[in-house]
Amino acid sequence: MSRTSFTLIGCLTACLLSGCLVPEQFKAAANIRADGSFIYRYEGTAMHALAAAQIAEHGSLSAKDEASLRQDAEKEAAKPGVKKFEYLGNARFRVELERENRSGKASNSLDLISVRQNKDGSFTVSSPVLKEKEQKALAQLGILPAGVISVTLPAAAHVISHNASSTPGIFDKSYAWKVSSFAQKLELRYRLAN
To answer: What is the dihedral of CA 57, 143, 51, 17, to 10 degrees?
Structure first.
């Protein structure tokens, strides 16, 4: 294994200890409740980063590794909140999730949104951002995000600040971000009306 491969795998391992799947083509949405909990939905593809690194190093996955990823998909498909978890081959999965998340908690690497309550009573909605070294490692593997994240706030929310690509309108009540880089960080701060 080359020195570059060791660096790449080490970098990926560090950034993906909580899960090896990396969002690729996707739509993600959160409907946030007054207590900061939310219904989270993810629909799209995701890459298994360590398997993608193996493909980059060896040209393909072994039949044993392909079978193992297929078995992993079957196990994931049986978990609560998972509507679809299908292995497509070559380290890629088709995933559909719908589950409830609590404020301050992210349950896996495909959770692109977290909500936390601040000391002053306001709430912050944000997304994880990978370190520059990790972003470069994923780009080197050809793994780049292309998706939309949308957030619908409780009716009593007053937005203090945001960096959304689009804001609520007549037909759509959500804030949305077009994601094309792992360096992008969504951020929205709001307070509930008394």
So the answer is: 120
